[in-house]
């Protein structure tokens, strides 16, 4: 009998070993079963007993088994799990601590333990947990709660959870240091009498740039850019500097920011407040009447005193609508000169580099409890463009200044990804454009083609080409910025908010000395530093996206109930449906394929061409502006669903009205 059992086991093992092996990702469902999806898009059924061993998103290998005519996967090994560190909610089962991951397809409570004080965690609390044991790899699931985020009813939950999810700090850096000016390596000029001014949002406290413009006798202008100089207070590799390096950026979320530097510096000592003497790094740049930069900029350190704290709204209202602006005459004259300079600079860049069309910024208005009561689409007005052009000119000038030295933190963009260039050319030429890979690989050829697309307002092709683009990267060697059509770009105008800008400050100041010693800065400005800063920038953007989605899903509940119709731009088409950007408020609801056309077999959602075909006819394309109605605002998933408003429905509504 025992011998027969052994033979049966051996037979089963041989059958298992000879069966096809499948690798892929676990896709959970709302039911107890799931699927194993391969990289080629094929799906295999995973029965409920097997799904108990894995989690949505796990990379696994399994064996394809058959039960009559039905195929299913028997799971073998875990290759990788995406659920290493995760946000979860606390729950208890028979007084045993458990956590439920914050994902709609990860509903399984997982056993947990914690080193926190017993009883400190309540049902529904938000926490950070780490997976210690996995069901498929270790035979059971076990997690450790490492950090408390907030209680279940904390009104700050959208912000705190989004920050925790991406390992970002939720508070300003803590310090009891009394910051003092460091010993200077260059003598600062006294510009305290120059009527410099700042232009920011009304709520801005960390004001880091002040401007002044004067007309040149020979035509054109001289632009003076004064940037707050936190390097005057912070030594390289000091405790404050190391914290700033780790953060990389000030994190901006709706209604709040988490500064890179202690608020004593960012909002006070370094902020260019009106009437306050401040250390600054400055440059003066001559601009030709046509808006082109006339010559290399002159960089120097200085003491400045802002003569006026201005807002975008009041400056724009004065220039665009003639509203009074009660400021000293020298400030008003400089503002008018900056307007003229900015308009010519913008024209020059539109003709010689790349300037993309303006898009609104969306601003959440919050009440005292942190609830959104309105979303404002802030259009870019003349004052925004004035400041932006001044900053662009200053950053172009910094790149030119640093390039001969072969060191700096440069913002770079390589245009189309080298591996995707030929495919991009195929897409472009199919639309009748005469370009070659050789041309698009050059800065001038890329910029020329982009200017043509922009002038023709070809939103569909523009949207299609996004998938072939390379990323904007921070490099420690000078490279071109194809995305802006520039030979070089090195930001230094936001050292309170960006660590790369703070490093460039130190570098520029060191190069202004008689005998520059770059050893320490070369050790700080490495390729790895650029990669780390790019990663932190991504985390900041993801935290902002997550917070926005949470707030949108809460705020737009009323729009679902009221069946509000919005205009939206299609910006993504996938196999499952398409996504639109609502022009009124910036929300990005998903339109499932079932909402586009009932007969799925008659419809093709083509991601490659960026089009939706119904019965062989193009029905929707990337870049199209369509009308949609929200049908669901899911606060648990923080997602929005919408359906297109068909033309016939609109006509019926108009008749009934």
UniProtKB/TrEMBL annotation:
Domain S1 motif stretches: 563-645
Keywords, ordered alphabetically: Cytoplasm, Exonuclease, Hydrolase, Nuclease, RNA-binding
UniProt-annotated location(s): Cytoplasm
Gene Ontology MF term list: exoribonuclease II activity; RNA binding
SMART domains: CSP, RNB
Pfam family of the protein (one): RNB
Biological processes, Gene Ontology terms: mRNA catabolic process
Catalysis: reaction(s): Exonucleolytic cleavage in the 3'- to 5'-direction to yield nucleoside 5'-phosphates
EC code: 3.1.13.1
Enzyme category, top tier: hydrolase
InterPro entries named in the record: CSD, NA-bd_OB-fold, RNase_B_OB_dom, RNase_II, RNase_II/R, RNase_II/R_CS, RNase_II/RNase_R, RNR_Ribonuclease
Record flagged with keyword Cytoplasm: yes
GO CC annotation: cytosol
Matching NCBIfam families: 3_prime_RNase (TIGR00358), PRK05054.1 (NF003455), RNase_B (TIGR02062)
Similarity-based family: Belongs to the RNR ribonuclease family. RNase II subfamily.
Name used for this protein in its record: Exoribonuclease II
Species annotation: Oceanospirillum sediminis
